[in-house]
Amino acid sequence: MFQAERIRHLPPYLFAQIDKKIEKKKNAGIDVISLGIGDPVEPTPPHIINRLIEAVKDPINHQYPSYYGLAEFRKAIAGWYNRRFGIQLDPDKEILPLIGSKEGIAHISVALLDCGAYTLIPDPAYPVYDTGTILTEGKAHFMPLLKENDFLPDIGKIPGNIAKKAQIMFLNYPNNPTGAIASEDFIRDCVDFAGKNDIAICFDNAYSEITFDGYIAPSFLQIPGSKEVGIEFNSLSKTYNMTGWRIGWAAGNSEIIDALGRVKTNIDSGIFNPIQYAGIEALNSSQDCIDEMCDIYCRRRNMVIDALAEINIRVEKPKATIYVWAPVPGGYTSSEFATHVLEETGVVVSPGNAYGPSGEGYIRIALSVKDDRLREALDRIKESV
Ligand SMILES: *Cc1c(COP(=O)(O)O)cnc(C)c1O
Description:
Elements: H1 5-8, H2 14-27, E1 33-34, H3 46-56, H4 71-85, E2 95-98, H5 101-112, E3 118-123, H6 128-135, E4 139-144, H7 160-164, E5 166-172, H8 184-197, E6 200-204, H9 226-229, E7 230-235, E8 248-252, H10 254-267, H11 273-284, H12 288-310, E9 323-327, H13 334-345, E10 347-348, E11 350-351, E12 362-366, H14 371-384
Parallel strand pairs: 1-10, 3-4, 3-5, 5-6, 6-7
Antiparallel strand pairs: 2-8, 7-8, 9-12, 11-12
């Protein structure tokens, strides 16, 4: 059957591929432990679930939700920004609820990117930035994230002719997959660069709340001038163990929010109302559940770092996210090592090069697996090298 040219440029989704591999091993009777996908195993906190249950019983909530999200949900997001970062956002013009931030990240290119124009994309990165670019027939310019630069892109290395033709710059800190964080100074430099070159910054802050050792992550929107040049994506997925619920948002520049809203209202019908009510509950009630999750991830992070040290892989403790980005042992490529670990131990880790060519030489270990299974996986890996 005929397939559009642009689909042929789209690689199979990384985690869909990993899922297939796991399935195959499991069918062969192997006890697979997946450290491949960042997907919290702890349940969504009960007060959030209870709010959904209550809302779902009301037939008014079975109808089409409003396209731009419930006004109360947008207000709850604005209130959260105010309490958490001390910033003011207009809930009607500067906030757009999303069916998970992945959806908005993919659609932002439809809203902002002309055919043939450039997006500036970190390498390695969450694969969806490039997906949007491919589907809208834009061109990607990859910005290497190197260890010697603390996994921050070197803005000065972006060629002038590409900066001129760029319309979107994606940034993601705390970073998936490297676990790196960005200083406010770095973000300020990006805001300057974007202003000078008329580029929209799309800042992905999915891990803003998953931080350790006293580190508190900034919002892109607290940087002066940021609202003139960009938006921030955030999501309840990682913060409240709600990946399956599909609820997030974009916030910031009103013209970008308007453009993204125009795309979405023509394509989808918004988030199921009971999920939005649950989202309001999550944002407005006690945030203690986040501290509990951060303690859990911090403990697992330390388990991973210590186990890797025992096999002579030295990694600095990441201050945020649910990932450890570790160099592979000498003599292996990323793929070879990930394959070796899977074949020898039944443990899934993702090969760094799957996130972009500069990820070569690394693997990503996700901390979203119960402690005893993580311990077992680490023991198996130790034994195999
Ligand atoms: C998990 C993740 C998201 C969040 O995706 P949702 O669609 O909101 O579940 C966004 N960006 C990055 C980098 C992520 O790792």
